[in-house]
Please model this.
Amino acid sequence: MTAMRLSVPSFLVVLGTILLVPVAVGLFRDPTGISLADALIAPSPAFPFGADHMGRDVLARIAYGFLWDSGLSVTIVAASLALGVGLGLAGGYLGGAFDGALTIVMDLLVALPHLVLAIVLMAYFDQGPVALAVALTLPGWVKYARLARARAAALREADFILMERVVGAGPLRILLRHMVPNVLPPLAGLAALHLGHTVLNVAALGFLGLGLQPPTPEWGGMILESRPYLYQAPWLAITPGCFVFLFMMIFTLLAARLEARAGEGEREDAHAAA
Amino acid sequence: MIVLEGVGLSYPGGLFGGAPKPVLENVDWVLPEGRVFGLLGPSGAGKSSLAKLILGLVAPTTGRVRIGGRDWRAQRGTVLRAMRRLVQYVPQHPEAAFNPRLSLGAAMRELFRLHDLCPGERREAQLGAALDRVGLDRALLTRFPRQVSGGEIQRLSLARALLLEPRYLVLDEATAMLDVSIQARIMRLVLEVAAERGMGVLVITHDIHLAHAACEAVYTCENRGVHVLPGLVQQQPAG
Model:
């Protein structure tokens, strides 16, 4: 008997379909409509993922929760990437006092557990989506900055960068046109992994009551609300938990794939330069 | 004319400080346009550092390097960009001298944008002529640096330097990695262009035979200085 092997891209398509089909269906349903008569209804044709303690449609709340969690996570990752790459490139390329100060700040932030820092920040902030994005971006940019800085410091002395200076390119053109395209590919895998972890962190803050507040549908908040009904209606906790897991799994696999591809590209470049 | 006046260059000490390591000390050297000079010397003697000083890529620790009367260190902005055009460089490893993520065509076309070399409609014709001059096909422009041979990319590197119509060209072991026939072809082309345009050339090499064949005067870089090599010098113009 021949064992069936699923390639990583095919597996990602399958997982993506499992994630997105319920989301697409749920977006046509009402996530906030209360119907106490339907409270704690088990999964059924009318409520495919059941109903919560207020009779709200769990499928609809999962779908809108996806928009909130993934939208916030994409914003956090994009802001962290832009900030980290900008600061890291400037530090690595310019060097000097700016690079020294940047290194100290990065070392301090790396020493702090990011989720704990976000919890402390959220305890002080007004608990809205902007505060949540800021609390997770503040520690989030460091990993990009460290990698971008190291790459930029190595590229600064690369022959093609020296040649760009020889032909008259200025620092800004060198940074944007020649350094950024050579720094970004290895960061793509890191960003994918960060996206998966950020969804988990957004949900974790929601579960702790420090994230988005009810009645906003959010996966961590849904798990928090389901705690009193864990034995009576376990689908209320299991369903959002499964979607967090699915989201993380997709982006962890994607990260591994992107890192492997970036590695192949690096090897090709190194082989060509040898 | 490139003038080095009392030029010294030191690199910082090790990771834990220590005395700076001097590479060059009190070098006075004049490189006039229209002359082909050779520079020999053992590895680590400071030949490439000297090239970087001439190209304005590093600042001398002492003294100054002037190009057409202007000190590299005092220049900024458009003046600096215009000065860069005056001195061009062909490195030993041309495959590493092009951005690996840009096509060769994109890399070449950037020069037109940087220096506004000619009107848009004439750019492709000028680029084509530059490629013809070094014997390369235009189809090469669609490829990436890793997709062409060492000889092709070295000629393209030369075409890039010549496209800017420099007053001075520095060849840093530019033919060392190539076979003898391509080496001779490239050197012949450089000497032709130098004679046509009155361009000065500095040939940095380990190959004394190449230096002897191609250069009017040959210098050595050793003991932190530049010295003329007796027996391989023709009359140097005053100035």
Summary: The mean pLDDT of chain A is 91.
